[in-house]
Structures are given as structure tokens and as C-alpha cells.
Amino acid sequence: MDYKILATKYGTPLYIYDFDYIKSRYLALKNAFSARKSLVCFAVKANSNLSVLKFLANLGSGFDCVSIGEVRRALLAGANAYKIIFSGVGKKDEELKEALQNNILMINLESPAEMLRLENIAKELKKQARISIRVNPNVDAKTHPYISTGLNENKFGVEISEAKKMYLYAKKSEWLQPYGIHFHIGSQLTELAPIIEAANIVSNIMSELKALEIDIKFFDVGGGIGVIYENENEISLYDYAQGILGALKGQDVTVICEPGRFLTANAGVFLTKVLYQKLNSKKRFVIVDGAMNDLIRPSLYNAHHGISVVSKQNGEISNENSVQNLNEISKADVVGPICESSDFLAKNVDLPELKNGDLLLVKSAGAYGFSMSSNYNSRLRCAEVALENGTDRLIRRRESFEYLIALEREFI
Ligand code: LLP
Q: Where are the N6-(pyridoxal phosphate)lysine residues found in this chain (predicted)?
């Protein structure tokens, strides 16, 4: 792909997603579960662009949503309502109501209080609610503490004993129908053992529920499959699926998984332009036009994203290793224009001498990149482009200043 041409055509900074890659990841995951009924529900929070969702919906994907905004996006993108699940620790009444009215597959409950709210709303609407309960299996996912969710110290889900009580209550209720069981122990998981441990714990709960004539149809293992940003271990999909199916011990359920990052992280790059170089007595800074408002993962989690220079000769990228062969390589921090010391995209990376107009690619940016972006410093959120079958197309226009101030202007 000629990134120089894309930069000229769409401007920078720019998110670029390879849809063919997303498709190959989706199919690989579906294939791993082919021995079973399975439903892949893409975690919309990872990349909520409507064209990404539409592309996945056309492949048959379902969607894991954590706000009614995400549910609306999925429906607008053409998702089958019966493939949408609605999760999240704090859903509002209006959100629960709309989700029910839209006949989505099920609502993932995260507290007894929420279950009672939903029961009331279902009663008002005279519509039975299909529910799933997010169980917190108290398993250490061994990932970054900010994205670890399966321990009792985390705010997510309910403890096992509480979950059982909730299922018993729901079974008796005229307005609640136990339908699924859910867990999600964390994100960017690079070890399989904690996922399988959790799957076994939750599968055992399901067997106990069955003995109480509570019939669970969907076994939802959450998302969290890690990807390679630098040199991480990637879990084998075969082992992942086999481990989960093994935990199910032949129980007749549909397996749901909710991958976000796995499908889109390495489909995306963030293209940014060098503005200046600056040297002080301690450091070399490469100042670019992209910033923490566009891609916050380095600032927020100290996350690593590989950096490549778009080569000057032919517009193709040179990878991180071949950069070593260029002249005048030295360590630099790649920083944005925002007024925060934490505004960096990479630290201490080997880069050749760069000048205004040179292009850098920030890799693995297709998940939690644009979807976590903001307008901090009154910066306009950037454009997004899709690559499919060798062609490029715009899938989100760059924001304008008028758009930025639209909700304030009338009040001055
Ligand atoms: N299902 C549930 C219930 C979740 O909470 C999440 C992510 C997913 C699925 C998708 O997880 P994935 O497959 O993408 O790991 N902003 C952070 C990640 C936060 C993830 C929150 N939950 C980051 O940039 O690393």
C-alpha cells in the first residue's frame, strides 16, 4: 500500500484499516469453533466505525455492546438483532427499555439491583427479557491491571454464589428468562490457562443450574484474546477453542466469544506526519501531527505500538528492523502537539533523521484507537479509511471546526 498517496488523498493524521485482514481473523476464529454452534460477537468498543460493523455483520458476526449507542450502531450497520448482546456494569433504564424493544439476543446482567430494574421494565413493556449473568470467577488473568476484570476486587460481574441466587430468582420471574451465562476475565490475554480455568468454573455453575432445571443456551466466554504488539505470545486459536469446548464436557450450548482486539488491532495503522525534530541536551523528539487524543494507549497504559518510517523513495514502509540500516539512526521520542508530558506515541525508538512532511506509521492501531479518541485541545478527530481488495475508501470524514463547536455555538 502506498501510504504517501493515502496521506495526500485523505490528509494526516489518519486511521487505515485492512478489511481483508479483519475477514481472515474472523474466519479463523469461526473455524476454530467449527465443531460447535458458535457466535462471534465483535466487541464494538474496540472499533465502532459503522463500515467496520457493516463489514463484520455481512460476514455473519454478532456484536457485544456496552451502551445503547453501540446497540444502535450495530443495528444501523445491518446486524441481526438476535446476534446482539448488551453488557456493561451501569445500564440506564432507557437503555434497558430500548434494548428490550429491539428484541436483541440477551442482556448481560452485572448486579442483582440491575436484574430487578430490568424485571420492572420488562413487566411494564409486557415483554419477557432474555438474560445472561456475568459471573466473576475470581481468576487472575495476568494482564495489565487496568484491563484485568476477573478478580473479586474488580467492579465487573457478580460472585458465583450471588449469580446462582440471581438465576433462581429469574427462573421464578414471569418477566425474566435465563438464557446465557457470561464471563470475561480481562483483555490482551497472552496466557491460555486463566481463560480455561474460568471456563471450567463457569461451566460447572452451568451444570449446577441445569440440575435446578435452569436451562442455559449460550455460554459466553467474553473477549480478551491478546495480539502481538511487540513480541507477545499469541494464544493458539486451536488450543483456545479446544480448551473451551473441553470445559463444556459435551453440554449442548452455543459458544459465544466477544473478541475486539483480536479482530481489528493488527488490521489498523495510524498514519502521522512529522512536523519538526527537536534536540535538547538529554533527548531527541520527533514531533508529529498525531497525538494522545487520537491514540491514547501509549499514554494511558504505556502500551507499545511499533513505529515504521514510510520510506522516501517509493512510499512503502520499511519495517522496524530495516530502519536500522538507514543512515543516522538514533533514539527518539515520538510526541504529539498536545500540552501534556504524557502525549507520546512511542519512546526511545530508533529512527533515522526526519524532516517536516516525512510520514510515520504507528502499528497495531485498529483496536481502541479511534474509538478512544477525543477532542482534547480542540483537536479535530481524524479521518478513517478502509482498504479492501486493493482499493481504499473513506469511512469517516475528518471532523471540521464547525462540527466541533456545533453544540455550543448557540449559547454564546
Ligand atoms: N467483552 C467484554 C465484556 C469486555 O469488557 C471487553 C473489553 C471485550 C469483550 C473485548 O475485549 P478484547 O477482545 O478487545 O480484549 N482500552 C483497553 C481495552 C479495554 C477492554 C475493555 N473490555 C486497551 O486499549 O487495551
A: 45
Chunked in runs of 10, what are the mean pLDDT values of the chain (412 residues)? 95 98 98 94 98 98 98 98 96 97 98 97 98 93 67 80 97 98 95 96 96 96 97 95 93 96 98 96 96 98 96 52 61 97 97 96 98 98 97 98 98 98
Q: Which atom of ligand 1 is nearest to the CA of 88?
A: 3
Residue having the nearest C-alpha atom to atom 6 of ligand 1: 223
List beta partners, residue 286: 277, 334
Residue from 359, 176, 193 nearest 271 by CA? 359
Determine the Cα–Cα distance for residues 64 and 45; give it in Å rounded to an integer: 8
Q: Which residues pair with 268 in a beta bridge?
A: 17
- Residue-level pLDDT at 323: 46
Alpha-carbon distance 410 to 412, whole Å?
6
- Quote the CA–CA distance of 293 and 336 in Å, as a whole number: 9
**Predicted pLDDT of residue 312:** 62
Taking CB atoms and a 6 Å cutoff, what residues make up the pocket around ligand 1?
43, 46, 64, 87, 147, 184, 187-188, 222-225, 258-262, 297, 301, 367-368
Asked whether the whole model's pTM tops 0.85, one would answer yes
Residue 250 pLDDT? 77
Given 3.20.20.10, 3.65.10.20, 3.100.10.20, 3.50.50.60, which CATH number is that of 35-259?
A: 3.20.20.10
**Is beta strand 284-288 parallel, antiparallel or unpaired with respect to 330-335?**
parallel
* Fold classified for 3-14+265-405: Lyase, Ornithine Decarboxylase; Chain A, domain 1 (2.40.37)
Closest ligand 1 atom to 184 CA: 3
For 134, the enclosing helix (H) or strand (E) is strand 129-134
> Which of 29, 41, 45 has most ligand 1 atoms within 8 Å of its beta carbon, as the pocket-test mutant?
45
